[in-house]
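Training component of the fellowship. As part of building independent skills, the fellow (R.M.) carried out the full modelling exercise for a liganded target. The chosen ligand was fe (ii) ion. The inputs are recorded below so that the supervisory panel can assess the work.
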Amino acid sequence: MVEDQKVSSGTTVPVIDLREFGDSHNSEKAYKKLREACEEWGCFRIINHPIPMHLMSETKAVFRSLLDLPVEMKERNVDVIDGSGYVAPSPANPLYEALGLYDFGSNEAIRSFCDQLDASHHQRETIEKYARAINELVFDIGQKLAKSMGLESDLFKGNWHRRFRINKYNFTPQSVGSSGVRIHTDSGFLTILQDDENVGGLEVMNKNGEFVAVDPWQGTLLFNLGDAAKAWSNGRFCNVKHRVQCKEPTIRVSIASFMLGPKDEAVEAPQELVDDDHPRLYVPFIYEDYLKLRLSMTLVAGEALELVRADR
Ligand SMILES: O=C(O)CCC(=O)C(=O)O
Ligand SMILES: [Fe+2]
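Fellow's submitted model of the complex:
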């Protein structure tokens, strides 16, 4: 029996065991636990997922070596949609940089990312395999999320904006105690985070407004729900606020796979989640428009949802 992950404040991020969904005795409990995790935390660990451990560690090694490339090369990794390319260390965030791959559902986009960075054959193959594995997992989780809400739909079917962001934190002795990434929510629907195997620092906010440390747990994946999930669920799912703090003077690398929003459809709550007791909270919106609104007003911790409320 795997215990829930211990966190510093004594509370725990829910742990979801994917095996329990296939077990007729436990599956109802598993769906309930998933739904509660989405409603109360907007964040959960998945254990016993099908992504092989060696693929996870190899992909991390590949991305680490691409992040070690000279800045001139990393700058070739340009935006495709807002914020999707290389982010260099900045005066506001001198310890942080990131590479971005938009869109990991497209072989052509993976090829173009690899061309920009002169990736080797092995590096390309690894990224392609990882993208395929994440796409399959995300599709499965999308079905489970919908089913946990009593819906028989394939949540992530069709054409979605899918982005990898590989985060690197160059923590130093001087930066211990300071912020690596400031408090934010993710703008999209779902983020799958392969966090650093050894270096902690991620903190998520619980429903009492307290930050809870999410310690590394090798081989597992952390899932965060973002603003689009809150809108889709008609306000039931929590768009978890989170941040990264520098705890140790060392490099920290995480891979975030974002399921941002549908490309050809609006983000909106399905009719089944709207009734007299739960009137529609948000007007349907196109994900890219919402992202632009969020960025242009620097409303990065979920406040932009107030601007798309149906009762404004
Ligand atoms: O590096 C992490 O653990 C979290 C990164 C994150 O929150 C993000 O990329 O949106
Ligand atoms: Fe985030």
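The panel noted the following from the submitted structure. The mean pLDDT is 94. The CA atoms of residues 10 and 134 lie 31 Å apart.
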